[in-house]
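[recover] target loaded
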């Protein structure tokens, strides 16, 4: 059974930065794709970005391009989301997810999900 645990969320001012981490256990995910999604209050969960298993290909939602960066450390079974230039509209619970296929990374389904970490951006 795969477990994903996100951390690093918190309260930050507009324009600030945060780095989220997602640590996996239960399986070696070094050959699996890893993704971040987010869900704001009253809204559907939306894709943020994804990285392939090698870490040399990434894909981002237009809303975060140029501000967010995904990376992974397969030795640590961990994926990161570096967020900068944060805006109030980035406020959401951020989830990491994983599956084998990297094709069409913004599309569901994903096999495993974390419990999420709250990011709040104040204006």
């Amino acid at each position: 059974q795969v477990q994903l645990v996100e951390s690093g969320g918190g309260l930050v001012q507009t324009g600030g930065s945060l780095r989220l981490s997602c640590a996996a256990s239960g399986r070696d995910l070094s050959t699996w794709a890893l993704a971040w999604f987010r869900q704001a209050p009253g809204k559907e969960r939306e894709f943020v970005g994804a990285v392939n298993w090698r870490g040399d290909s990434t894909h981002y939602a237009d809303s975060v391009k140029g501000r967010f960066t995904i990376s992974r450390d397969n030795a640590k079974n961990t994926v990161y989301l570096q967020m900068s230039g944060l805006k109030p509209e980035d406020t959401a619970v951020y989830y990491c997810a994983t599956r084998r296929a990297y094709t069409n990374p913004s599309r569901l389904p994903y096999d495993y999900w974390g419990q999420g970490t709250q990011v709040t951006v104040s204006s």
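[recover] notes: The two ends are 40 Å apart (CA to CA).
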